[in-house]
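Retro notes (design track)

What went well: tokenization of the new backbones is finally stable.
What didn't: we kept losing track of which sequence belonged to which structure.
Fix going forward: every design gets posted as structure first, then sequence, in one message. First example under the new rule, 148 residues:
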């Protein structure tokens, strides 16, 4: 039996890690295959502890992470333009866990498919599925493609 599922809105969560950029490549291929629009999302995790904010001031975190995300988006943007894919980019700064933010964003935007890397910048090689990917898989109401 063939799956008749069609994806019109695809979300890829990135953090600049090699696996998240590989996930972006998968997302571009899927968007091209289905003629879908693609959203690249980066979640800036804001430290919540007073000690953290003394070491990493909020404004500096936002500025640096936004600059980094724009570089990653530029790479993705170039590839989507070459493939005639509509791209939307989004940066969200949150104190909540990134997996929760990604899932809620996907629900609000009526995303059909989420694509994530198995582990990102904070992942350990011993962990098969990173905490963000695991949380997205667990709580998403739409299909999730995990890239390793």
């Amino acid at each position: 039996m063939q799956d008749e599922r069609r994806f019109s809105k695809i979300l890829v969560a990135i953090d600049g890690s090699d696996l998240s950029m590989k996930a972006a490549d998968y997302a571009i291929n899927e968007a091209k295959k289905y003629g879908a629009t693609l959203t690249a999302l980066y979640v800036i995790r804001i430290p919540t502890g007073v000690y953290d904010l003394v070491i990493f001031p909020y404004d500096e975190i936002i500025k640096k992470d936004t600059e980094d995300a724009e570089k990653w988006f530029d790479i993705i943007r170039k590839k989507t333009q070459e493939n005639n894919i509509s791209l939307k980019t989004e940066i969200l700064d949150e104190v909540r866990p990134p997996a929760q933010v990604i899932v809620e964003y996907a629900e609000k935007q009526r995303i059909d498919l989420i694509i994530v890397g198995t582990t990102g910048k904070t992942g350990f090689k011993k962990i098969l599925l990173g905490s963000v990917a695991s949380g997205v898989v667990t709580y998403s109401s739409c299909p999730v493609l995990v890239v390793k």
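Added context from the reviewer: The chain has a mean pLDDT of 87.
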